[in-house]
Amino acid sequence: xxxxxxxxxxxxxxxxxxxxxxxxxxxxxxxxxxxxxxxxxxxxxxxxxxxxxxxxxxxxxxxxxxxxxxxxxxxxxxxxxxxxxxxxxxxxxxxxxxxxxxxxxxxxxxxxxxxxxxxxxxxxxxxxxxxxxxxxxxxxxxxxxxxxxxxxxxxxxxxxxxxxxxxxxxxxxxxxxxxxxxxxxxxxxxxxxxxxxxxxxxxxxxxxxxxxxxxxxxxxxxxxxxxxxxxxxxxxxxxxxxxxxxxxxxxxxxxxxxxxxxxxxxxxxxxxxxxxxxxxxxxxxxxxxxxxxxxxxxxxxxxxxxxxxxxxxxxxxxxxxxxxxxxxxxxxxxxxxxxxxxxxxx
Length: 346
Ligand code: TXA
Ligand code: MG
Description:
This protein is α/β, with parallel strands linked by helices.
């Protein structure tokens, strides 16, 4: 299949490009769309064949459900049974990087929800994503636009290297603003929330809207054998670079000492803080932002992991993030990419 690449900088001035992307979706094709979190591999969320094509292009097990993307929070009514908590969340965080899991209506084919009786719904804030959803007139089912097992794509180049020839169109909307996938919450019967995946909407922000938010244990921990996670995506190994990734914690000076020693011994790649550039051998460093700038670190993480892979190092080192605020999302992605390998430097 030939994949068309279209750059959309300003959707309001590129109505023809938006209409073409929308028409491909409506006709059962696949279009990769930019969002504020990561790029999404989009198809018609009401069409079971589109869902099958998405799973095939991504190489994803079809029991791992897709998120459907809408352009206004009220559109959820057509696809899910909403409640007061949903609208409180919508008022506070939509459009934006939040996905809400609700009981599904029959209008969503079971292929989209991986056989689940719930559906994950998100109203993205990226203007190009919103314009394409509106023009398509159908919700867009979209997982992250990476091949299963690769880091989520935060630029059109990442998407093209994974999906060129497997989708009808890639819409290039530049670098994603947040760089980590959306926060996912499940609304419980009692109106409380369970945080299934941390992201741009933090745990503390959720607490401002709902005083009963529990954190799914899979976010920080390892799944026990035969344990079934609430969010199926959590059971799959994700974002793993080819070389082993080791997360370091402990005293900063001692960590630098350790890294200098490692650099002299093996081909290592280091996702370092900007402040550390002058402290280590420049070769093999991928700076991901200043120590206290978690937002930049989040934005650069997936790109850094892809770059790390290209160098084929023996080993990759990075700092273990703090778990507060957006740090929890960074921690969750990194601990999984590292298959929970943490080394304390004393
Ligand atoms: O930011 C994002 O959420 C991006 C952009 C494209 O919107 N999408 C994304 O989709 O990250 P994906 O498919 O890579 O991750 C969706 C996660 C999966 O872990 C899946 O298991 C979970 O959402 N999920 C989907 N439907 C669910 C449901 N009904 N119940 C529980 N978890 C669900
Ligand atoms: Mg994904």
